[in-house]
Design goal:
The chain is mainly α and 191 residues long. The chain has six helices and no strands. 70% of the residues lie in helices and 0% in strands.
Length: 191
């Protein structure tokens, strides 16, 4: 089965991240995000692919060596079955390689999102006003309007960047979904 972006098995994200708090966006990329563990999973998939290729080679060698000892219909059936299993092992090793690559790419995307996520910029106008008033600093009070606007703009810019980071992460994870799927091995032929 070829993967197509319109395939409903893996829908594109339609989450409205702009409605999330900045803190929730930080949690979105931090919680359950373990690129090292994902890299280990990619390695396990690659190892499975190696074992499937070894099985393919062994099955092919057995099929080729059976010419000397198995003749006739039974020998041909044995070789056909072994070659079918070898072909499936070969195909499955290709799928595992694709899955390993996909898991590795997804780990990179998740790590990049975690690294690129900006820290929230606190913006509490009431606290800023009360702090300026308590300080008695006339310059701080006079500049309060500008300070409030600067802090609001910094908080909005950091939040916009956080939304972009999570949206980019979702796009990258979606793009890294493997396009191949395992096909069931054929069973023994009837007859």
């Amino acid at each position: 089965m070829d993967f197509e972006p319109s395939n409903p098995a893996m829908p594109a994200s339609n989450r409205r991240y702009d409605a999330y708090s900045h803190e929730a966006l930080v949690a979105e990329v931090a919680e359950g995000n373990d690129p090292e563990a994902a890299g280990g999973l990619a390695g396990q998939w690659a190892g499975l692919g190696d074992r499937l290729r070894d099985a393919r080679d062994q099955l092919t060698a057995i099929a080729n060596a059976s010419d000397e000892h198995w003749h006739g219909t039974a020998g041909e059936a044995l070789r056909a079955s072994l070659r079918s299993a070898a072909a499936w092992s070969d195909e499955a090793s290709g799928v595992t390689a694709e899955v390993a690559g996909s898991v590795g790419r997804q780990a990179e995307v998740a790590a990049r999102a975690r690294a690129d996520m900006p820290d929230p910029v606190g913006y509490d106008p009431a606290s800023m006003i009360s702090g300026a008033m308590r300080s008695g600093d006339l310059l701080a009070i006079a500049g309060l309007s500008d300070a409030l606007e600067e802090r609001r703009a910094a908080a909005a810019a950091a939040k916009a960047k956080a939304v972009d980071v999570v949206t980019t992460r979702d796009t990258g994870l979606y793009a890294a979904v493997p396009g191949a799927a395992f096909t069931p091995p054929s069973g023994p032929s009837a007859g």
